[in-house]
Amino acid sequence: MTRRRAWVSWSSGKDSAFALEQTRRAGTVEVVGLLVTLNRDADRVAMHAVRRELVQAQADRVGLPIHPVELPYPCPNEVYETQMDAAMAAAREVGVEHVVFGDLFLADVRAYREQALAGSGVGPLFPLWGRPTDRLAREMLDAGVRAVITCVDPAQLPAEFAGRSFDAELLADLPEGVDACGERGEFHTFVWDAPGFRSPIEVEVGEVVERDGFVFCDVLPAEPTLHARR
């Protein structure tokens, strides 16, 4: 039987990477692409501020094409919705019936996605939904997810967390009330290795800047070392 085709909504972060892994493991749909929203002016992933070349490196590691949605900055919501409607029409043209999201527990976000896709012929999937995030964060680490924090909301988490590795030490250091997966927007990540990657992406932490009320850490491609798979 032919499996239904799906794209993964790809933010470059740990939740979308693990959603991809869990979807592939379940095997109920065939993931055939990554849907990526990009700040057109900065040429970076929206909110995570990850360079396009690094997202392309992720796509190469998981063996999937990128389907970019180019957004202006600032981006009015009606422009975002028009662009996403066009992306879903393009998805249907190539037989895609689902988009996989890495959302965890925010009911309003899920409802927005469901409403946005209603009538498009593309249905949402939420493979990580409802899992306790403290356990989920550790499950990600145990599975081999390796990431760096690229964006911090300093109203919820100290700016010094920008640029830190997403690891057990970070989880232990998170202040009380901060979600272990950053689901309330406390932080965002870039994944440089994960289950399904053919090899890690060599990166280094660059400049940390404050912009538009957030603290961003630039992640840069680095020279290859001995981390390649054997």
Low-confidence stretches: 226-230
Q: Count structural domains.
A: 2
Order of helices and strands: EHEEHEHEHEHEEHEEE
> Radius of gyration over alpha carbons?
17 Å
Q: What proportion of the residues form beta strands (DSSP E)?
A: 25-35%
| CATH homology-level superfamily of the largest domain | HUPs
How many strands, what sense, and barrel or not for the largest sheet? 6 strands, mixed
**Secondary-structure content class:** alpha/beta
Please tell me the overall pLDDT.
95
- Helical element count? 6
CATH topology of the largest domain: Rossmann fold
Question: Could you explain how this protein is built, in words?
Answer:
It is a single chain. With 230 residues, the protein is of the alpha/beta class. The protein has 2 domains: 4-125, HUPs (Rossmann fold), CATH 3.40.50; 133-221, no CATH class. The protein is 30% helix and 29% strand. The protein has helices at residues 14-26, 52-62, 77-93, 107-117, 133-143, 168-173, and strands at residues 4-9, 29-39, 44-45, 66-71, 96-100, 123-125, 146-152, 165-166, 187-193, 203-211, 214-221. The longest helix has 17 residues, at 77-93. The radius of gyration is 17 Å and the shape is globular. The relative contact order is 0.17. The model is unreliable at 226-230 (pLDDT under 50).
